[in-house]
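Worked example

This section walks through a single chain of length 163. The input is the sequence exactly as stored; nothing has been trimmed or padded.
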Amino acid sequence: MNVKITLLAAKQNTVLRGHPWIFPKAIAKIEGKGVTGHLVSIYNAANEPIGVGVFNEYSLYKVRVLALTPESIDTSHLNTLIFDRLKQAKRIRESLNLPNAETTAYRLFNSEADGLSGLTVDRFNQTCVIASSAYWVEFNKEMFIQALQQLFPQDHLIWMPQK
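Given that input, the structure is written out below as tokens.
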């Protein structure tokens, strides 16, 4: 990640408390050329790393936070981060006994709640229906498809077009 986003001191606590979006007025400085759909490093006002996110130069949400520094998740590459977040969500659903004899329809991935802002995946039997509400998800569509194919090799994937 060659792009560094430094937050204003007055705004950094919202991110540290789990808010998934960084608005333009919360940014003190951008170092490097932010590329829409790519990973950026997020720093606090004291120049300490606090997380990573994806950048969008055209959105009201300049950065969608994907991971905070204290988490034990590999943030070195976007494809690894995506795979790990999807695998994490799969494990959580399995711990809730989903799917089971009573239901094979459930929300496998729930956007910000599962750590990938803008992505929703519903699973019906062996069909994953993927919905995107963010450009970065559309931009990285192939990474999501590859990760889901690895986690659910028998499933049929349906990508819903963004509206």
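What to look for: The first strand starts at residue 4 and ends at 7.
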